[in-house]
Amino acid sequence: MRTVGQVLKEERERKFYTLDEIEKATKIRKELLEALEKSQYSKLPPTTFIQGFIKNYGRFLGLNQEKLLAIFRREFSEGAHPPKVLETFSNPVNEKKFRLTPARALGSLILTLVIIFFVYLWFEYRFLIGGPFLEISQPNNEYSTNSPSVQVTGRTDPEVKLSINNQEIGVDVTGKFSQEIKLSDNINTIVIEATAKGGKTTKIERTVFLKK
């Protein structure tokens, strides 16, 4: 008994159609059409899809679709022919996979280096045109205290020269600093100044009130 694939192939050849023409007309991949004609069901997707292929193929050739499906049901056995989705079926033609090629890897590396370079230039530009970073954690401005001294703490760039009331003090490797300053008047002005290597300065003043 002829298989459904043989029926389809014989009718196609009788009408002088190529598989490429059938593929274009039915939108069924040529690899699937070939597997169907050869009854290679293990290379085809599940039976629901196979039946849809048979109906579309038969409709194009002008064959009775119900008879074709009846032939298919007689010859096909799920246990003997477990369906398997073809790679070409699970990955349509218009689906593009990203593949890392040497050219793409080199391009990504160059792009990364360019970004790093411009970030470096931005930081250098910022450092040259503006004063260094300086932040005072305490005391707050117009701070009031009964103590004869106050602790000045904050952080700045590690490379700068830092002074409080013209007295140079040190900073740690992270730029943090802490210095005790004595208070002598009712109103005390504390000047914290950071000077970069290029001569740019950032100055912050704090007013501290001493209650006697």
Automatic annotation (TrEMBL):
Domain of life: Bacteria
One annotated GO molecular function: DNA binding
Keyword Isomerase among UniProt keywords: no
Transmembrane segments: 105-123
InterPro entries reported in the protein's UniProt record: Bact_Cytoskel_RodZ (IPR050400), Ig-like_fold (IPR013783), Lambda_DNA-bd_dom_sf (IPR010982)
Pfam entry (one): HTH_25
Transmembrane in keyword set: yes
Record key words, sorted: Membrane, Transmembrane, Transmembrane helix
PANTHER family noted in UniProt: CYTOSKELETON PROTEIN RODZ, PTHR34475
Listed name of the protein: Transcriptional regulator, XRE family
Source organism (scientific name): Candidatus Daviesbacteria bacterium GW2011_GWC2_40_12
